[in-house]
Amino acid sequence: MGENVISDSQRWDCGEEVQKLISSVEDLRSLYSSLGNAPDVSRESTQLRDPAVAGKKEQLDGLLNASVFAAHEYKHGDRRFSEMAVENARVYLDSPWMHVPWLTVRVQTDLLDSILGPIKREVLLATCTFLFASGTCLVSHFEWRILKFPVVALVVGAVWGFLAERKRRALKHIRSEFVSKSYDAELVARRLQRLEKKGVPVPGALYALVRLGVGKQPREAR
Length: 222
Description:
Blueprint: H1 8-24, H2 26-34, H3 51-73, H4 79-93, H5 101-139, H6 144-180, H7 185-197, H8 204-212
Helix pairs in contact: 1-2, 1-3, 3-4, 4-5, 4-8, 5-6, 5-8, 6-7, 7-8
């Protein structure tokens, strides 16, 4: 997969919000300061003298722009959102110089949201199946010849919805722990493994992000 690059028009659209984000988040301000240049996500970014520093800044700009743009333009279950989350995770894990607590949480939650989206749709579909089957049972006047199919759908919808909702709640709990910046990395990894055994597609990058995350030593988390 290629680098996370968005078009000039897209970058211009989300540039103002990215600038506000950088201004309000100390981790990001410090990160840009370490590159020796003020953040610039406009079309006319200045060229830095050091090509290595310029490359890092371009990488950081691309990651932030892609995350902000995808969060506003795509639903969490959208394929394009998932591609952004996976690519940003790859770039972030391959760039140790970029590792700061706030950005770690951003990449973690983007990747987790890409998993949560389809689970939420699954819960909604199961609920709709259950409600449709319930309505069919009510209007069938309880004639077994008509009832047998909606009864099966009723049971399937109920069980399916129950299992999907359990997965959704487990993922939401993990997400809240990421945001809190205070969690047990090994415990969260084991929870993800259990979810994976139940059919949740957990990207390998998420395990790496969990172990990298600020929650490794809760007492030191900011």
